[in-house]
Design brief:
The protein has 492 residues and is mainly alpha-helical. It has a domain of 116 residues. Helices cover 62% and strands 3% of the residues. It contains 20 helices and 3 strands. Strands 1-2-3 form a 3-stranded antiparallel sheet. Helix 10 packs antiparallel against helix 11. The radius of gyration is 24 Å and the shape is globular. 40% of the residues are buried.
Length: 492
């Protein structure tokens, strides 16, 4: 690796070529892993049975419509307009389904590729986003590339980008909001309270969009909004104090009012804009008359409130047993990954030549060499933040706080491991933070060995991803080969 890096950076021209092409190579790798044979299986997998069909009725009627019982077989065969006139009670906001529906409209709803393409594109874009974010956080291009590579080859990210579910879309908007937040921190003025904060407005729009995909986007809104208000107030207070004479510091109003005013401005810029974005996603329901609960009140906003009350009651009372339900405590360690799809063939059936039978599986299982070190890195980062007040570490933990911690309050609710895609980018950033810290804290004599270690780790991680790739994309393999990937009984 050292020899390769020396060759790449031998001259300025080589460095410029590497800097300009390497990010695109990683994005191309992410695109290949997310787009290759995306239409397989030509079946609605896991919760696609809800979101894909809802997306198509939403796109055609402005609201989600009910379907006849056992409608999947006909839908998968291309009979996509068999929905009923009755409204369907759905418990997630519309934006994610509008996005899925756009892909179906663009490529044709009977094409299974179209069910997933919108999510796949956002999954690819998220790889580019994490590189932009890491570039800001770590101030070096190479660690940005490492972040993008790890996100590009992780199985959890690959599977969620290849499936027509809402969680990958939620992750994209939360990550986009985090990028806008970092840009705000880079460019904000500390002189006087100001309304001219375009990046903060962008944060509000992105978080409103995240909340309009799934209500768990509100957790990110709370975490990021609280951070912005407190951070702006604290930084402006420091700035105000630095400009005062010692005897003036005792006059609290001299620095308290400017910081408080900016906190209020920041709140107003983010929260109402997020709310407006959220409401805009319900435009189809508001302007039509065929949605669920639409006629519950003559005032459409009060009718929408009634709908939200019904959906909230559903969520808080969801305790239905499920074979792949998992406790949020186990998510960081990927103890119970979700099986999205599995089919098996007996020896001799449909060309299966393996005496053990054949399997095609899609399992939302992360690369163990990414998830386990990343989980340890999150805990280590929490320790560093508590003891050293690392600003970068705190920003990374902000994503974990918004995407993971709230779920610990729902221990008895039916929840799934694949929800972790919402905070996976911050797990990877935590891992890269620790790898970078490991290299940069070595002496000059130790650094070559540390770089070789990191290079070896990345190479081994890539190899493990290749090993697991068949059970991420549904490749037909001998049954024994599928079982070889089931390292824990809880993975089956």
């Amino acid at each position: 690796m050292i020899a390769l890096l020396n060759q790449i950076f031998a001259d300025e021209k080589s460095r410029r070529r590497f800097n300009s092409t390497a990010p695109w190579l990683i994005i191309a790798l992410a695109a290949f892993l997310r787009l290759w044979n995306l239409g397989y299986p030509k079946k609605l997998v896991f919760d696609e049975t809800y979101y894909v069909k809802d997306a198509w009725t939403l796109w055609n009627t402005g609201v989600e419509k009910a379907w006849p019982q056992n409608a999947n077989t006909a839908f998968e065969a291309g009979h996509v307009n068999g929905y009923l006139v009755d409204p369907s009670f759905v418990v997630h906001p519309p934006l994610g389904k509008w996005i899925i529906g756009f892909g179906m409209w663009l490529f044709g709803p009977s094409n299974s590729f179209s069910w997933r393409i919108s999510v796949a594109i956002l999954g690819i874009a998220a790889v580019g986003l994490i590189m932009l974010i890491a570039r800001i956080l770590f101030q070096t291009r190479v660690w940005a590339l490492v972040s993008g590579l790890l996100f590009a080859i992780d199985g959890h990210a690959i599977v969620l980008a290849r499936t027509g579910l809402l969680d990958g879309i939620l992750m994209f908007f939360a990550l986009l909001a985090f990028y806008f937040l970092l840009r705000h921190l880079q460019t904000r003025s500390l002189a006087t309270p100001t309304w001219r904060q375009p990046w903060l407005i962008a944060v509000g729009i992105a978080l409103g969009a995240a909340s309009a995909v799934k209500w768990s986007g509100v957790y990110f809104l709370a975490a990021f909004g609280l951070y912005v208000a407190l951070s702006d107030a604290i930084e402006r207070r420091k700035q105000a104090i630095s400009n005062l004479k010692p005897d003036e510091i005792l006059r609290a109003e001299a620095w308290l009012l400017p910081s408080g005013a900016q906190a209020l401005i920041s709140f107003i810029l983010m929260i109402p804009i997020a709310l407006a974005t959220y409401l805009a996603s319900w435009a189809g329901w508001l302007v039509t008359s065929g949605g669920y609960d639409r006629d519950a009140n003559a005032n459409p906003l009060l009718a929408l409130l009634k709908y939200h009350q019904d959906a909230f009651n559903f969520h808080v009372n969801l305790h239905t047993p499920h074979a792949y339900a998992s406790n949020p405590i186990t998510w960081l360690l990927a103890i119970r990954p979700t099986s999205f799809f599995y089919e098996g063939l007996s020896a001799g059936q449909d060309g299966c030549t393996s005496t053990s039978g054949c399997s095609s599986a899609i399992t939302a299982l992360g690369n163990p060499l990414i998830w386990l070190p990343a989980a340890a890195s999150v805990l280590f980062l929490a320790y560093l933040f508590a003891t050293r007040k690392s600003k970068v570490g705190g920003l990374i933990l902000l994503g974990i706080a918004g995407g993971y911690l709230p779920w610990l309050a729902f221990m008895n609710r039916t929840v799934f491991q694949f929800y972790a895609i919402a905070f996976l980018p911050w797990m990877i950033l935590a891992l890269v933070y620790v790898l970078r810290m490991y290299v940069h804290t070595r002496t000059s004599e130790e650094q070559p060995r540390a770089i070789r270690f990191v290079g070896g780790y990345l190479g081994l991680t890539f190899a493990v991803s290749l090993f697991f790739l068949p059970i991420w994309i549904g490749t037909w393999t001998p049954y024994w080969y599928w079982h070889l990937h089931m390292w824990l009984p809880s993975w089956i």
